[in-house]
Amino acid sequence: RWNQDELSASTIERITTTDVRYSGSRTFESVTPRVTALFKVTDTFRIYGNVARGFKPGGFNVASGAGSISLPANLRTYRPEEATSYELGFKSELLDSRLVLNAAAFWIDWEDLQVGAVFGTPPLTAGYTTNAGSVEIRGFEVDASWSPTDWLDLSLSLSHQPAKISGFVDSRTAPLARVGDKLPGSPETIATLSAFVTRPIGENLEAFAGADYRIRGSFYA
Questions:
Q1: Reduced to 3 states, what is the DSSP secondary structure of residue 61?
Q2: What are the backbone angles phi and psi of residue 45, rounded to the nearest 5°?
Q3: What is the pLDDT along the chain (221 residues), one digit of tens a residue?
Q4: Where are the beta strands (DSSP E) in 95-204?
Q5: How far is CA 118 from CA 31, 52, 92, 115, in A?
């Protein structure tokens, strides 16, 4: 896939009694290929792998300090994000298709992560977006669904994906986190258990009930 984003921004900010004007335009081009290989071991067991590139355009910081402070020109823009992901896994149907079991391992190299930062000294501050560096994600996912009877369905999903900051390219964001810290808003482990029951209670009527239990690990806000 080839993509081109053409962005422009124009703003006038009233800082105390002074008008601060800013305008700019930028063009971002990206090529994001994806390659997938699939090997059919049997009719019910398949192995796959894929490699893909991802891209998120950069942009402009045009809303800043709500009339109290203005961003300098070098903070008005931020760079695009780029990521390369690798995945290897399998998909299967077992026990006469009553059990579906899928699993995958993946790793992602993420560059120029876009994060929020603050410019200025309180109470005169302005929020803006900048690039925080690189992130490494190494993890796995497992999901399974099992129907031991005609009226009971059980399912499990588990993902473990520790995401850690591995470097900074913008020194202004260094006080916000340290190399090796977890990625904000990203718990390492998430698991869900579910059960679903269906029973006929008449010729054209069924009753059903379900329950879910979800576990989510801690994460930085």
A1: coil
A2: -140, 120
A3: 999 999 999 888 877 777 888 888 999 999 999 999 999 999 999 999 999 999 999 999 886 656 678 888 888 899 999 999 999 999 999 999 999 999 999 999 999 888 877 888 877 888 888 887 788 899 999 999 999 999 999 999 999 998 877 766 555 555 555 677 777 778 999 999 999 999 998 889 999 999 999 999 988 77
A4: 99-111, 114-121, 124-131, 134-146, 152-160, 163-167, 189-202
A5: 32, 33, 49, 10
Token pair belonging to 191: 């698991």
Which is nearest to 114 in space by CA: 58, 60, 62, 76?
Answer: 58
Residue type, 119: F
Cβ atoms of 151 and 120 closer than 8 Å? no
What are the angstrom distances between the C-alpha of 16 and each of 12, 19, 61, 64, 76?
13, 8, 19, 13, 20
CB 215 within 8 A of CB 191: yes
**C-alpha distances in Å from residue 93, one per residue of 9, 103, 105, 213:** 52, 12, 19, 24
In this structure, which amino acid lies at residue 161? Q
pTM higher than 0.85 for the full model? no
- C-alpha to C-alpha distance for 26 and 10, rounded to whole angstroms: 12
Measured CA angle at 217 (ends 50, 135), to 5 deg: 45
